[in-house]
Amino acid sequence: MKRKITLKQIAKELDVSISTVSKSLRNSLEIGEETRLKVQAFAKFYHYKPNNIALSLKNRKTKTIGIIIPEIVHHFFSTVINGIEQVANENGYSVIICLSDDSFDKEVLNMEMLANGSIDGFIMSLSKETQFRGDFHHITEVINQGMPVVMFDRVTNDILCDKVIIDDKYAAYEAVQSLIDKGRKKIALVTTVDYVSVGKLRTDGYTKALLDNGIPFNEDLIIKIEDIDTCEITIGKLLEDKAIDAVFAVNELFAVTIIKTANKIGLNVPNDLAVIAFTDGIISKYSTPTITTVSQSGIKMGNKAAKMLIERLESEEDEEDENYKTEVIETHLIERESTN
Amino acid sequence: MKRKITLKQIAKELDVSISTVSKSLRNSLEIGEETRLKVQAFAKFYHYKPNNIALSLKNRKTKTIGIIIPEIVHHFFSTVINGIEQVANENGYSVIICLSDDSFDKEVLNMEMLANGSIDGFIMSLSKETQFRGDFHHITEVINQGMPVVMFDRVTNDILCDKVIIDDKYAAYEAVQSLIDKGRKKIALVTTVDYVSVGKLRTDGYTKALLDNGIPFNEDLIIKIEDIDTCEITIGKLLEDKAIDAVFAVNELFAVTIIKTANKIGLNVPNDLAVIAFTDGIISKYSTPTITTVSQSGIKMGNKAAKMLIERLESEEDEEDENYKTEVIETHLIERESTN
DNA sequence: CTGAAAGCGCTTACAG
DNA sequence: CTGAAAGCGCTTACAG
Predict the structure, then answer these.
(1) Contact, B96 vs B52, CB < 8 A?
(2) Which of A68, A73, A226, A245 is most buried (most C-beta within 10 Å)?
(3) Å between B31 CA and D15 C1'?
(4) What is the DSSP code (8-state) at residue B229?
(5) Which CATH code for domain A61-165+298-328?
(6) Peptide bond connecting B289 to the previous residue in cis, omega within 30 degrees of 0
(7) Which Gene Ontology molecular-function terms are recorded (chains A, B) (predicted)?
């Protein structure tokens, strides 16, 4: 049990000053070659590695990125983390991840905790509750302290900062248009409650596609699901009562539930009912039938978000040019068996 | 853009010493009430929060746990993280997550990086490559430095430390036994390559169940899949040539592929072919038919691992009693449509 | 009751 | 060429 070795110990052992050791290890030409090599050899032998915490304190930067997401057991979010991790590591950053569990309080707590010196900047996606409340003071505060924030996916217009999103409205439009192109006339929308920003935008896209094609908009064909566990009944009713021939679901969990319900009441997917889902995840790929989806590349989102954050962190701190950008990641339709 | 306020600034502003401020904020009775309240009010007004990094340096502990896992886009691992996060947060710890991508080098790099002061202890699951090489020097080193390590799921006997696992062999045994109980006679095993510790154990359980029931063990019925993308052909052959009536798959991805392949060649699951998978994830729940699985609770594993680590961290450092424990998390069979 | 000093582990401008 | 000093932000034993 040898504790990690420090500069001080090396200095003592070699009978030189701490400064000399430090400089030798950083290969400063200030130090005579003989001493330098001696110190380096000794340090190498004892596996000396500078203490990150001490460096952070000294440099006033930690080289770590804080990530706050609602939920990790979610293919999309894991994917984004992967993307962030990639470019973070390439640039010598590590990441520290906190989960808000879609709770406002946890989001605030986590941000405060990380903001106290543990990280250099945030990458985050808002919790449902935060979006519902519209209370973003914790984020403003962090930004005011000079800590950059990049938001992705679930963002808000109320905060000025870098963002990376997909064009939810347009992507939804395209998806619905593809259904119309295939001759579907009565298209339902299964979505989330309105305060989730992306849910709202996808609804807009859905509506616009219908209207642009002269299809009457029918409120009854929109179902807003609050809780996935109780949705089957609502969905069953929709399918039985409304004689629809297609559904656009705002995520793949809804989509797979729709398919299963349809099967139960004797509807064939895709013949009787076409199904498209937002978010290309693992379920869509392995469901039977496989599900046509709008793919939003989490990896790309993560890459981009990390790039934006690191760029800001390393840009000479000329804090004045706060020209925040919003990057839009491209989506595309992945055609599978649930449409034809 | 007001940078975060420090003790020093408060001291200056209030014209007292830094010590006085520090003590006041920690509510030390050493300080006169008047001063104490004045300082506290001021600090509150400016949202003073102590700098974590400084505290870490001072206390020589960071109150953060390092997690190293092979892959985050994996329901089981995300689930474990969730479990770790829960009890970590309850105990005032945060977590920092690094991914090894199943690569030995990344695992080593990440561990070295975190070991340099950033965290107090590790919770980890070995990368495939590490298991393949059998090289664990990076872990030994960390432990020798006095940093506790808890391993979960993919562990090794070559390292002495706390571990939390499931009884892979027994769970596999049970699963196969349940197939036998349902009258299945010719049961195949679809597994991973042998160096993945859990793969090996599950194979052992499978074999034992067969032998215990007087069913001849047939090497040809065991398929080892290296790469999920090319497995369909191998699986197809198994199903067509071997006339099996049940399959035990070592994970749900294999299981769902088996089911899809079976469907293609006209086999009905579960009538012609029963399927059981290890690891209860999201696919099993939403596949058609839904898949009977051995559930290993990632949440519980994470909870337990975090508890063990924190306990060790906070146990008075009486480092001598290194009585390492291995906790076994219970599994159970979740019966669904793929068996009957 | 208040403050100066030492220290956590490091770096770097400044003396010598 | 080497080292003492100051400092990052904090805490705490010790003086006064």
Answers:
(1) no
(2) A68
(3) 16
(4) G
(5) 3.40.50.2300
(6) yes
(7) DNA binding
CATH class of B63-165+298-329: alpha beta
Residues A97, B96: C-beta atoms closer than 8 Å: yes
Distance A23 CA to D4 C1' (A): 15
CB contact under 8 A, B144 and A56: no
Rounded Cα–Cα distance for residues B244 and A240 (Å) = 40
B44 CB closer than 7 A to any strand D atom: no
Length of chain B counted residue by residue: 340
pLDDT number for residue B236: 85
pLDDT at residue A187, as a whole number: 94
Q: How big is chain A by its Cα radius of gyration, in Å?
A: 26
Asked if strand C contacts B51 at the CB level, meaning under 7 A, the answer is no
For the CA of A58 and the C1' of D7, the distance in angstroms is: 8
For residue B279, count CB atoms less than 10 angstroms from its CB and return exposed for 0-12, middle for 13-18, buried for 19 or more: buried
Contact A338, A270 (CB under 8 A): yes
Find and give the residue nearest to C9, measured CA to C1': A54
Same CATH topology for A61-165+298-328 and A168-296? Answer: yes
CB A155 within 8 A of CB A169: no
Write the pLDDT tens digit of every residue in A169-225.
999 999 999 999 999 999 999 998 877 778 889 999 999 999 999 999 998 999 998
Nucleotides of C under 7 A from a protein CB: 1-5, 7-14
CB contact under 8 A, B117 and A53: yes
How large is the average pLDDT for residues A270-275? 94
Residue whose Cα is closest to the C1' of C7: B58
Mean pLDDT computed over A55-83: 92
Residue B3 is nearest to which of A75, A141, A146, comparing CB atoms? A146
The CATH classification of domain B168-296, taken from the options 3.40.50.2300, 2.40.50.140, 1.10.10.10, 3.90.1720.10: 3.40.50.2300
Residue B20, nucleotide of least CA–C1' distance:
C2
Which residues of chain B are under the pLDDT cut of 50?
none
Per the DSSP assignment, residues forming a β-bridge with B183 are none
Instruction: Give the pLDDT confidence score for residue B197 in this predicted structure.
Output: 76
Contacts of A232 (CB under 8 A, 6+ apart): A257, A261
Listed as own residue / partner, the contacts of B200-205 with beta carbons closer than 8 Å and 24 or more positions apart are B201/B168, B201/B169, B201/B172, B202/B168, B202/B169, B202/B171, B202/B172, B202/B250, B202/B278, B203/B172, B204/B169, B204/B172, B205/B168, B205/B169, B205/B170, B205/B171, B205/B172, B205/B173, B205/B174, B205/B175, B205/B176
Q: Positive or negative, the Cα torsion across B16, B17, B21, B23?
A: negative
- Residue A4 pLDDT: 84
The residues spanned by each domain of chain B are 7-50, 63-165+298-329, 168-296
User: Separation of CA B21 and C1' D15 in angstroms?
Assistant: 18
> Which residues from 53-72 of A have any strand D atom under 7 Å from their CB?
54, 57-58, 60
Interchain proximity A47–B95, CB inside 8 Å = no
- List the single residue in A1, A110, A141 with the smallest CB-CB distance to B319: A1
Q: What is the pLDDT of residue A320?
A: 53
Name the residue in chain A with its Cα closest to that of B90: A106
pLDDT tens digits, one per residue of B38-50: 999 999 999 999 9
Q: Distance (Å, rounded) from C-alpha A258 to C-alpha A282?
A: 16
Show the DSSP H helices in B75-216 as ranges. 75-90, 104-115, 128-133, 137-144, 168-181, 197-212
B102 CB contacts (<8 Å, ≥6 apart)?
B70, B71, B127, B128, B129
